[in-house]
């Protein structure tokens, strides 16, 4: 028997591998199939490409086409684990199983192609493969791409890594390139949860995917929350997928590293095609005043709270993130270089941080925190593990002072930074919160008080990649249910940025606040209140995700 002729590149993939005949099924394989269970295995004789009899085997674990007696073999072997498969299709009597096996921490395209004697056989076995894939697979995806994200390569990432994979999986993709700040917010706000009957063409997509950094996901989450029919289901009902395409990629890193795989576009797109989802907490960020006059209260009511999935920072960390925007062309290395510069030109900050520790969380005397009055906007927060609906309403009203509740703690300045985290990672090489979990009903608070030597700060930055900074002298780490920040003045004329998901919320400088921020006030009399909305979002994650 001769080998099947080499085919040109096309729907089957690369041209450097030829389809193989379906191979004979040995007695040992039949016995193995019986051991797995006949209900889980499809194994039968099919007509070969040149007469005779061939066999195929498809189980809930793998797709097999063993070597035939003449020695013909598939490129990369004749078996693919079903956990690595995103779909199968048949054309002209040839079946192609689209698989992305894991090699180390990266998935690479390695298809399995089998030649049949008839188109009907090929279609039958392609259907056998597809019937065993997860039922959570999306049928259509809305893809939002920021062409300017990171170093400007997000659109190229989509075209090279994401679009081909989705096409092989049979997933329809509608691409929207964002053209201005807030564009993704507008698209998400108009996104309809209800689909047409049967999910026909013209109905809304099953998943919203962003190919960018973390800022675009922040816009989408807040756009969904701003829908006219505002309710928790508007966010929970729409799974959100993230493909790394920016300079930070913290959310993508947290999801992929939690499954033990690398933060690559192909790994993220593979998870999207498989459709596995996990619940995730959101941070609810609002603002109030200590002395609220009627006019001030009316103004605050017109400013809706923000939702955040990543973090909120103030001080050194936020200054590095915001002020290094002029170096965005450098990619992720901008944060490292500017961080070193800011350590050399160190600022300190007055102000204070109130926080409500998680039940059972120990707060040692060495952390510089003392018991204090409970912020009056936090009524009921001392008894619930995560924010209740009534507590969330209180948070939207804003923090406005304190009363007696010994569960709350306060830290007075001078401070170097305050870092409130919802995910483990803050960039692909920065892991500030190794104890964070996506749906634990808490935020992770890190802070550092002055004075601290520059050498100790430099060591802290070097330890952030591995998370080994936790427990080191001067680094305070507390799991909290609520954090209230009263941001004071920086020690220099510049700085004092409050950052939410990489976006500037407010700043000490009137000029910066007016031109770049969300228009929120800055100062100790305008506290920033950070709470938790438990399991308020649904994120696409690898099936092996733990965390």
Automatic annotation (TrEMBL):
SUPFAM superfamilies in UniProt: NAD kinase/diacylglycerol kinase-like
One Gene Ontology cellular component annotation held by this UniProt entry: membrane
SMART domains cross-referenced by the UniProt entry: DAGKc
Keyword entries, A-Z: ATP-binding, Kinase, Nucleotide-binding, Transferase
GO terms under biological process: sphingosine biosynthetic process
Domain (DAGKc) ranges: 136-289
Domain of life: Eukaryota
GO MF term set: ATP binding; lipid kinase activity
Name of the protein: DAGKc domain-containing protein
The organism's taxonomic lineage, starting at the top: Eukaryota, Viridiplantae, Prasinodermophyta, Prasinodermophyceae, Prasinodermales
